[in-house]
Design goal:
single chain, 264 residues, six-stranded mixed sheet, globular, alpha/beta, four-stranded antiparallel sheet, Rossmann fold
């Protein structure tokens, strides 16, 4: 479903501030893979997601989604393939619009627009059913402005919007990092449920090693624009945080790797 072939990206090339964020990176995700991505600050995690979504073009290499080469496509043309939830709960929704209006925008993504009535009764019924699955009481607040919701409610709604059209690839960019632990756990549970029910191929960046181990069927660890660990199956299920830190130190060749990961 996703193929990254030898992609590289350097910011501020040929200057004193040059920074190689992705260095000949290759990665393949099969249909239905749920891959957690972990690594210290500056490892290239978010840069990889931005490269996939088309926030910028890579310097070299190619990006394929469901067999289609999207390397040279601009961001808006890749949007039909992707769903994305960001770290900031304020992103991904229109705060001055109602909950049902936000869902209607997501439902009409990529469709031609006409002059018919905004939201039909059938659509409102569908949105209510979808919101009920979140178990956050939002089905009784569909006319509320999204800006009035809590961070956790907003992230859950953004997740629902990002997956409403069943994207080829779902990108979760530290989508629980700004939430308190209890709310983050709730949003992760909702994420697991939506991903499983819709059989979505997913990349989830996290700084939380326990979450990286507990969720998904595969875990990759990045360092300096490379993938230094790729663990799946029974090996992943048996992992502990101490195991993961030891593997990272061995793979990266850095004695200080454990401390950096824990602090970040």
């Amino acid at each position: 479903m996703l193929e990254l072939k030898n992609i590289s990206k350097t910011f501020n090339p040929n200057t004193i501030n040059a920074k190689t964020a992705l260095d000949n990176l290759s990665l393949t995700l099969n249909d239905g893979d749920f891959v957690t991505v972990i690594g210290g600050n500056g490892a290239g995690k978010s840069t990889m997601l931005n490269a996939i979504s088309g926030t910028f073009y890579v310097d070299s290499g190619s990006i394929l989604i469901d067999g289609q080469d999207v390397t040279k496509l601009p961001e808006y043309k890749r949007a039909s393939y992707l769903g994305r939830v960001f770290q900031d709960p304020m992103m991904g929704t229109a705060p001055n619009m109602q909950i049902d209006e936000n869902l209607a925008i997501a439902a009409r993504r990529g469709a031609s627009r006409g002059l018919k009535w905004g939201i039909s009764k059938a659509e409102k019924k569908q949105y209510r059913q979808l919101l009920e699955h979140l178990e956050l009481g939002l089905e009784d607040r569909m006319s509320s402005k999204v800006g009035l919701l809590s961070g956790g409610q907003r992230q859950a709604l953004t997740l629902l919007m990002a997956t409403l059209k069943k994207p080829k690839l779902l990108l979760l960019d530290e989508h629980t990092a700004a939430l308190d632990p209890g709310t983050a756990m709730k949003v992760l549970k909702i994420s697991d449920q939506i991903i499983q029910e819709n059989h979505l191929t997913t990349l989830m960046i996290t700084h939380n090693m326990k979450d990286a181990i507990a969720h998904g069927n595969r875990l990759i660890m990045m360092d300096e624009g490379h993938i230094v660990l790729d663990i799946s199956g029974e090996e992943k299920k048996a992992l502990t945080v101490s195991d993961l830190l030891a593997k990272f130190s061995a793979a990266s060749g850095k004695e200080e790797a454990s401390d950096k990961l824990l602090l970040s």
